[in-house]
Amino acid sequence: VNVDDELRRMLDDLGDRLDVPVRFDATEVILAGAKRLRRRRIAAATASGVVAVVLLAGIGILLARPGPESAPPAVTWNAPPPTTSSSPSASLLPPRSRVHPSTNEPPEGTATGGVLGPGIDGGPAGGDKPPPPSPERPPVTGVQLGPDGFGSVRLGMSYEELVATGALSESEPPPPSGCATYEFTDPVGSGQVQITSVGGVQAIRPATGTHTVDGVSSGWTLAQVRVLYPEVTPEFVAAQNPVPVEVRGNPGVVYMITFADEVVSEISLRYADQFCA
Amino acid sequence: MPTTEDFAEFVREALPGLLRYGHLLTGNPHDAADLVQTALENVGARWAAVVRKTGDPVAYTRRAMANSHVSRWRRVRRESLVAELPDVPAVDDRDRFEDEPLWDALRALPPRQRAVIVLRYYEELSEAEIAGVLGISRGTVKSQASKAMATLRSRLASPVSEGER
After folding, report:
1. What is the pTM of this model?
2. Do the strands A149-150 and A243-246 form a parallel or antiparallel pair, or are they unpaired?
3. Does the complex come out with an ipTM higher than 0.90?
């Protein structure tokens, strides 16, 4: 079989058979989704600004009042699980129940919390099982990732801004129309960033040890993570790994926490609704 | 200055073609709608910048879809891509492709291999362009295409029976 010819013939021939019938108000659904997304981004940018101001104010206080009592607060172990006001968009299509299985489809009964998963929409993904008794608190290790970046690398930064920080070599070509992955090196650590020409840095994946704003780092067990994020159940991890968890204080941004044998093996930071890999 | 009305017009015109493209990329209409909806909402949220910086929102959206589709960080689906709309027939493309064993073989490929094939044969992009769209090296494009074609040849030579699916 000449697969080249067959592919060309099939793709030429498919025509209307690839048409996807959508609801009559699909355009309005998309417009509403885009509007909601834009609002979230503005809120995220505002929150980041507030965090920066608070940090600056904190530094000012530290400088003015040195002493043991002015040490920065420890990572809050029992911080409340994240919540959000975001809601999934309406759908474009007619009923799903009669659709054949998708090759990419997660197991039935999972991913019911929308695109953002547990910790994002506060949904009960993973069932009603209560989290196990609080295990011993593990040590906080590595450099903090988030709420909006890692070292000098910040989400939303343009390619040019990233080059200007020195984290990215100028010899790297700028991103094409789509996403591009770059290796970065910053004084606090190295890793990969994904950038689009329109939205700037979409995701940060440090190669070196990191911890979240709540102190979660590589090596934590799932049971330990669940103390902070009860929605991250074993069932959810089995269906969806890495797991997106909202970044406290920065709506619209998530940690992607990867588990290997129910132990955190990697943490990255990204916009919840970005295009990139 | 691009307006919301411009974006609405763009969506109305581009939606059918983007959904067909998404159907090819994902292998089914529901994932296609999910992919298109996510991509267009992202484009709409940055509409002015997309128009200003890319000059071709359709091409930008298609490339974003291809990239998003193969994303290893994108494993979550929306709660529901479907609506209770009794006046719209349920989507089931099985019968529409009954006579296309190649369609089944294409659908069964891993996402990245399928994207490489669709970009090469449907979008007619070069290896370098595919590498740029997917953010991978040309060598990876070549190896993914080679693996995909070998799989397609093998599956077409010995199609899987219904009972084995």
Report:
1. 0.53
2. unpaired
3. no
